[in-house]
Specification:
The structure is a homodimer of 341-residue chains. Chain A is of the alpha/beta class and 341 residues long. Chain A folds into two domains: 136 residues, Response regulator (Rossmann fold, 3-Layer(aba) Sandwich); 131 residues, Rossmann fold (3-Layer(aba) Sandwich), CATH 3.40.50.2300. Chain A contains twelve helices and twelve strands. In chain A, the strands form two sheets. Chain A has a six-stranded parallel beta sheet with strand order 2-1-3-4-5-11, with helices on both faces. A six-stranded mixed beta sheet of chain A has the order 7-6-8-9-10-12, sandwiched between helices. Strand 2 of chain A pairs antiparallel with strand 2 of chain B. Chain B binds a DNA duplex (30 and 30 nucleotides) through helix 2 and helix 4.
Chain lengths: 341, 341
DNA sequence: ACTTTGCTTGAAACCGGTTACAGCAAGGAG
DNA sequence: CTCCTTGCTGTAACCGGTTTCAAGCAAAGT
């Protein structure tokens, strides 16, 4: 454990001033070639690296951005979303020398303090907020502190905040139309939570599909869940118990779709033969499932990358005041859980 | 976007000096009750929060710790491990007001720079290293820089580095014995990569089970994979193609077990009826699988928590020079992929 | 020979906190 | 009434960088 070198010591050893060392470190001009060489020599010799905290204080930017996760104890589907997203954003940040600070919290009040300290402590230059809600309190902290924000999902109530999103309505519509075209008249729609913006958009898509094919929506077939396996499982069990077996299910998450399929299986109904089920997300397990799941793929990794790109663009400041955003298309991945009716 | 307050301005507004404000902020003694009240009043009024970067520079600690992930583009099994682990460690760090910086990298050389800057830039007080290998280069950086390290998995070659681990040998032994006791004579062992320490320990456990029951190990039944679905799938396909259908499989990961099961299914062999398969990990999908997977559970969340605890203990400094470590027990979770032979 | 120009360099201020130390007032002991 | 605590507070140095500004100096221009 060598003691940590400072710029001052390097300067002394190279026989120059701190200012010159700083110029060399940051490739500023105005240093003679020989001085530069000499300083670089000393830096290499002592394998000096500048203290990033001190640099951060001086520059008022830290080259790190925060990733604000809704709740640590979130559901599995969120986990898989999270990990893919993380990979995407890391790829970009890493490339540009930025660090990623992940903020999570077990409880609601801890969450607040965690957000506040991140917003006001000057430890991050910008943040990406996952699982944004209507009039999200968290956003206010960051905006008030003047920290650039990119949300994942359209931030309703914040018309100027940058975001990345996925075409939820379009994806849901394509999936629903696919089922309708397969000849399924009644499609049970197991949606996410009512307050979730994504849920609303997906419901819109579901209805649009019926409208496009001039069919009536049976309101009794729209059910709100929470994206979980259990919500799919219980919903289908409930329908089967009441003797109302739907011929097709469109679930707003792959997990819920898997739950639905499991319920059908237990009732001896073969999915992909007698009934069709479509999920949403295309989580990595979707194609290992039995039957392999037909689903609507979200390009989560790409969304992570794009969120990172937008944030960095903002940080570099060469953007106008126009809102930056990108909505990604979805893709229907047809596997074996769907069949012509 | 209000301009950010500094301690100086608060001091001026409260009619005291920076030092006094600092004392109030940190609950130091030696401040009269009325002064304290006055300062707190001003702080609240302007909802001032101290700049954590400046504090970090002054204190030479930043209250943030790094989580070093092997590679971003790792396999799915690692992902699920990662997310659970992250939840665990976050729970602890969060409780103690620490931030988590996640270091990942797409390529090997970026990875190096990322580690180095984290080790030497003074941005983290300590690190947790995931997926540690023999004589891991990364550890050297951190140790050289005097940064406390906790590894996940026993760090071979570093006898003084703290770690958390799971009883890989014990878990593998229990699983293997369970299969042997079910009457399976030949157990195909689809292990992880040879160089992985966990793989070695699991193989040891596999052999120990045979020895305990006075049976011979058939060396041809020990195969090295990479924990992936594909490695399980291909291995079983290979065996079936050569007409050597094993009656039981023990896979070193749930993913590999699922791959094996899929291969059996495709060959028309019913797992949980004709053959038995046991996995390792107990990933969240294990019980949704068809058949629900018998597996060896690792307490990943708890391991995350413990890693955090150990690291914080180290940072508080009130520990001796003794190595801190904890090895967690595994638990055999019997579901429906195993059957008496 | 004297000014101008341009390049290189260092001194010093600054970023926003923490803390050692000294000063000062009030209260108690002798 | 003096001396000594004791408690509160402010001054100033420090953490380790960046950056402004002025100065030094050599080459070029007049």
């Amino acid at each position: 454990m060598k003691r940590k070198m400072t710029i001052q010591e390097i300067a002394r050893l190279a026989g120059v001033s701190k200012a010159t060392v700083s110029r060399v470190l940051n490739n500023r001009g105005g240093v003679s070639p020989e001085t530069r060489r000499k300083v670089e020599e000393v830096i290499r010799l002592y394998s000096y690296t500048p203290n990033l905290v001190a640099r951060g204080l001086s520059l008022k930017r830290t080259s790190s951005i925060g990733l604000i996760v809704a709740h640590t104890a979130e559901r599995l589907s969120s986990h898989l979303f999270f990990i893919e997203f993380l990979r995407g954003i890391s790829a970009i940040l890493d490339e540009r020398g930025f660090r990623l600070i992940v903020a999570t919290a077990e409880s609601e009040d801890r969450y607040e303090t965690s957000c506040r300290s991140m917003a006001e402590g000057g430890v991050v230059d910008g943040v990406v907020v996952l699982g944004v809600r209507r009039n999200d309190k968290r956003l206010r902290y960051f905006l008030r502190a003047g920290i650039p924000v990119v949300t994942v999902g359209r931030p309703i109530g914040f018309p100027r905040v940058d975001y990345v999103d996925v075409d939820n309505a379009g994806g849901a519509r394509v999936a629903t139309e696919y089922l309708l075209r397969l000849g399924h008249g009644e499609i049970l729609f197991i949606n996410g939570p009512r307050e979730h913006t994504a849920s609303l958009a997906r419901e819109k898509g579901y209805r649009a599909a019926f409208r496009a094919l001039r069919r009536e929506v049976d309101e009794g077939l729209i059910v709100y869940g929470d994206f979980s396996f259990e919500s799919g499982y219980e919903t289908v069990r409930g329908f089967l118990a009441r003797g109302k077996a739907p011929s097709a299910v469109f679930a707003a998450s792959d997990l819920a779709a898997m739950g639905a399929i499991t319920a059908f299986k237990e009732a001896g109904i073969r999915v992909g033969h007698e009934v069709s089920v479509i999920g949403f997300d295309d989580i990595p397990y979707a194609h290992f499932f039995d039957p392999p799941l037909t689903t609507v793929r979200q390009p989560i990794y790409e969304m992570g990358k794009e969120a990172g790109r937008i944030l960095l663009l903002r940080l570099e400041g060469d953007t106008g005041s126009e809102r930056l955003h990108k909505t990604f298309p979805t893709q229907l991945i047809v596997r074996e859980s769907t069949i012509r009716s």
